[in-house]
Amino acid sequence: MTNQPDWHKIDNGQLLLIDEFLAQKPADDLYEHLLQHAPWRQESIMMFGRSVLQPRLQCWYGDLSYQYSGLLLAPSPMPEAIKQLKQQCEQICQTPFNSVLLNLYRDGQDSMGWHQDNEKELGPSPTIASVSLGAKRKFSLKHKKSGDKIDQQLCHGSLLVMAGDIQHHWRHALPKSRRISQPRINLTFRYILPNELLSKDT
Ligand SMILES: O=C(O)CCC(=O)C(=O)O
Ligand SMILES: [Mn+2]
């Protein structure tokens, strides 16, 4: 069951949060399925000239490759269960998605640092739809100029959408949390622009 979209205007963008985007049973089934069967990998990225393991596992499905922090994620067809979820997100957001990055935070020690989803392949003002499964975790946004902070608890089966110019003006992160011992899975749906639509000088 999905609620009516209720977008919140924030400085330089819009946020949408639907706590009960997925009903309990489909959320439980997808969580168990992905936990057991998704091809999770712990990737390394280059930081200050050294190769460092990321504090989470990831996998990627999409028609096109995606490059971030020096990592190249090769194209890989989306499984049916994820295609259905993609369609639900497209309906709510009224925009297409052609790829999804899955993150598995094994417990509260796994995290994602402050960043912007602003790779040029995502286009100038990307809409990013993020579905959460498993442990409830705090998600934070911080405005780059004003320092304003928004903290949002993301629960099992919820959908958070970032749209407008958020990726230019805000950073976001999933901080560590000592209290959490259960895994969380996050699926972030994106639209990757084909190479021929990217301007050559960016
Ligand atoms: O786990 C989350 O909620 C955030 C994930 C994220 O920001 C990303 O995949 O770029
Ligand atoms: Mn992100």
Largest sheet descriptor: 7 strands, antiparallel
Task: Give me the number of helical elements.
Answer: 3
* Overall pLDDT score: 93
Q: Which parts are unreliable, with pLDDT below 50 for 5 consecutive residues or more?
A: none
**Shape designation:** globular
List all distinct small molecules, including ions and cofactors, that are bound in this structure.
2-oxoglutaric acid, manganese (II) ion
Please, could you describe this protein's structure?
The chain is an alpha+beta fold. The protein is 16% helix and 39% strand. It has helices at 24-37, 80-93, 166-169, and strands at 8-10, 13-18, 44-47, 50-53, 57-62, 66-68, 71-73, 99-105, 112-115, 128-134, 137-143, 149-154, 158-163, 170-174, 184-190. Strands 1-2-13-10-15-8-5 form a seven-stranded antiparallel sheet. The longest helix has 14 residues, at 24-37. The structure holds 2-oxoglutaric acid and manganese (II) ion. 2-oxoglutaric acid (AKG) binds next to β8, β14 and β15.
